[in-house]
What we know:
- The chain is 62% helix and 0% strand.
- By secondary structure, the chain is mainly alpha-helical.
- The radius of gyration is 30 Å and the shape is elongated.
Amino acid sequence: xxxxSFTEEAIKELDxxxxxxxxxxxxxxxxxxxxxxxxxxxxxxxxxxGICPNxxxxxxxxxxxxxxxxxxxxxxxxxxxxxxxHKTTLEAHFxxxxxxxxxxATHVIEQLTGIKRSEVxxxxxLKKMGMxxxxxxxxxxxxxxxxxxxxxxxx
Length: 155
């Protein structure tokens, strides 16, 4: 069981930050710790705030270890693609030699970097680099330019 002691200053700051902090996750953390400071049980806090009791305990441990400043930190997991390390070389290569399809781009990336990715992931990576697909249209097979000009003059 986590036992915390709160000063009047800490309670005032928690009360202020639960509404005025720019990030909603931090506001929720402040609300949880403030409710604990007011004597509510962890289960009741979890029910009131709408989070899991384990999350309440983790917020309280975070406050216990680092105080209000620890609650203000927002840490999200942001995985990075291995292709990001090769972004500049791939971008330069694709600017000089644009791929005709995602399949071709996938093979080129695998040859240049040794990293194999699905076509969907390569498409997402190319879009993040700022490249886009160029849509092509069909060209009529039997086109007589002189006949078309004559038709335009008559009509």
